[in-house]
Amino acid sequence: MGLVSILHTLFGVFGDATGLFLFLAPTITFKRILKNKSTEEFSGIPYPMTLLNCLLSAWYGLPFISENNTLMSVINGTGAGIEFVYVLIFLVYAPKKEKAKVFGLVTFVLAAFSVVAVVSVAALHGKSRRYFSGFAAAIFSVIMYGSPLSIMRTVIKSKSVEFMPFFLSLFVFLCGTSWFIFGLLGNDPFVYVSNGFGSVLGALQLILYAIYRKNKGHKDGKPPPVAVAAKDGGSVMEMGLSNGNKHVEKGKFMPEDT
């Protein structure tokens, strides 16, 4: 086994570890939901969307779709299982209107994934199968990584990192960077382009944290006006793929996923 192959495996393992952290972070939110038997004001949108990202990334990593990406399938398959549990809990405790919205999204997710899977297996072969599946996975990875943009905007407007915890930003950066290098070593643009985007956004979050780290709250104890808008606007990132998705809990930035 050559040096490149060893490094490729090591960065994949590290990406799995950081990705798992991001997938498990929402357990804090769901402990609260289970305790209160209510989803309160939490948005249910991030979970089915992250589920779709995980399913597509896990599918792309399968050996008959792309080569040397098995570690992607491992973490995203695990992430899909975790997200499915989140969705079920949300459906149990959400009010009727929110429950209908989430159920509709889950239906869309399963339909979209089924179309990609069936078309790639039944109608495509070789490189065309890989390109089709990789393009679908990359699109949703970029959407996932792009979701924190609204919370970054909140940090800039409020000049406070109260709503962007350091360790979540750190693991977004580490996860994106790990899979970016993994994709480069494997010469796979579907992996390194989307995760390179995630790595850059994670780095920007850390830079913002460094700039505003001394301001972690508000004297009046109230969130800034923009925090309310951020609650739903910065929700889809679970992070996958390597991946990660974000959720805002009462104005706080929570990861979802990668």
Automatic annotation (TrEMBL):
Entry's localization field: Cell membrane
UniProt keywords, alphabetically: Cell membrane, Membrane, Repeat, Sugar transport, Transmembrane, Transmembrane helix, Transport
Topological relation to the membrane, as annotated: Multi-pass membrane protein
InterPro entries per UniProt: SWEET (IPR047664), SWEET_rpt (IPR004316)
Any one cellular-component term (Gene Ontology): plasma membrane
Gene Ontology molecular-function annotations: sugar transmembrane transporter activity
Keyword set includes Mitochondrion: no
Listed transmembrane segments: 6-30, 42-62, 74-95, 102-125, 131-151, 163-185, 191-212
GO biological process: protein homooligomerization
Gene3D superfamilies: 1.20.1280.290
Pfam families per UniProt: MtN3_slv
Primary residence: membrane
General function of this protein: Mediates both low-affinity uptake and efflux of sugar across the membrane.
Family of the protein in this entry: Belongs to the SWEET sugar transporter family.
Protein name in the entry: Bidirectional sugar transporter SWEET
Species lineage: Eukaryota, Viridiplantae, Streptophyta, Embryophyta, Tracheophyta
